[in-house]
């Protein structure tokens, strides 16, 4: 495959970063290296690429090295492809378009666990935002600090949801849970009860500082479980406030390959203190061909309006609307989730 114009690719990336209103230092990193490459003697760039000495050039780190190598090998650089996927528009504009395509929210809490409002109020707020449905996803028993639902309480909630759906139609409350992913990768609820739910979100809430290898096994085991549909706030990080917490460590390529293989969705969590996954990890999920769910993780009615935060990040990382499960109608979403159990 013939090499691409490396300098042109770097300049195009810089231009699209400016369009997306990315920080100036990031724009200049690509522009400076592009200018530097034009001053190299003939053949030196290829020699450095072959000998692995590109990083000896000023300003060339891991990202720029990978971008240059992809271009030399005749591939459109991944970084450029992600930016082009946003159509050359500012990320806010592309995010707004993606947000307009959403039909619902797959991660919503109520006062049955640690939310601040009842189910009816959450549903009414979602309907006012233009949603056709929410997935009610209160916590599972192990998370006692969040008043996780026992099997008996969850069964009672299913009866309450059925009553509300009869009143609120055509708006729908889909039954669900945010089930804890336990350290061995099992799910904190019985198969029998999980099989009765429309959509199951699974998240790690304990032992987030596990070493990478066991955390990778934990996540892959959960993804292989036919009862799980969406992998919630995958790194568990907190980026603001008193609960500041670094992301969990795991082999993202292995985890996202499993998500793609089992056709599970990776959540793009829109809570401002989470914004999980980080953009560098989200971009790996895009490259792996994963599905996504852009969710608010709302614990109060006003928090349902947080989805645009996730949509803007998704647009910036090149997430196509066709890969976002909650751009589907409720019936299509439930059919997709049901297929996991059928396949298992």
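^ Assign residues to that structure.
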């Amino acid at each position: 495959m013939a090499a691409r114009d490396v300098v042109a690719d770097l300049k195009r990336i810089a231009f699209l970063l400016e369009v997306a209103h990315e920080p100036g230092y990031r724009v200049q990193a690509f522009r400076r290296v592009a200018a530097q490459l034009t001053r190299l003697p003939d053949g030196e760039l290829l020699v450095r690429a072959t000998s692995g000495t590109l990083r000896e050039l000023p300003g060339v780190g891991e990202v720029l090295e990978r971008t240059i190598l992809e271009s030399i090998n005749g591939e459109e650089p991944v970084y450029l492809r992600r930016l082009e996927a946003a159509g050359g528009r500012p990320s806010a504009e592309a995010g707004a378009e993606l947000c307009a395509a959403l039909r619902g929210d797959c991660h919503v809490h109520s006062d049955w666990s640690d939310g601040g409002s009842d189910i009816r109020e959450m549903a009414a707020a979602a309907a006012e935002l233009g949603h056709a449905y929410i997935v009610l996803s209160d916590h599972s028993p192990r998370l006692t600090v969040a008043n996780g639902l026992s099997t008996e309480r969850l069964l009672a909630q299913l009866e309450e949801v059925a009553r509300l759906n009869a009143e609120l139609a055509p708006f729908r409350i889909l039954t669900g849970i945010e089930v804890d992913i336990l350290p061995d990768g099992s799910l904190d609820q019985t198969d029998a009860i999980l099989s009765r739910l429309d959509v199951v979100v699974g998240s790690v809430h304990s032992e987030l500082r596990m070493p990478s290898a066991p955390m990778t096994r934990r996540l892959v085991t959960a993804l292989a479980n036919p009862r799980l549909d969406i992998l919630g706030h995958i790194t568990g990080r907190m980026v603001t406030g008193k609960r500041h917490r670094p992301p969990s460590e795991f082999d993202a390529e292995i985890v996202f390959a499993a998500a793609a293989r089992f056709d599970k969705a990776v959540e793009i969590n829109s809570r401002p203190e989470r914004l999980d996954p980080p953009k560098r990890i989200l971009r790996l999920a895009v490259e792996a061909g994963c599905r996504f769910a852009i969710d608010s993780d709302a614990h109060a009615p006003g928090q349902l309006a947080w989805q645009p935060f996730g949509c803007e990040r998704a647009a910036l990382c090149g997430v196509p609307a066709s890969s976002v499960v909650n751009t589907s109608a409720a019936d299509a979403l439930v059919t997709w989730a049901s297929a996991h159990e059928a396949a298992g």
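The radius of gyration is 22 Å.
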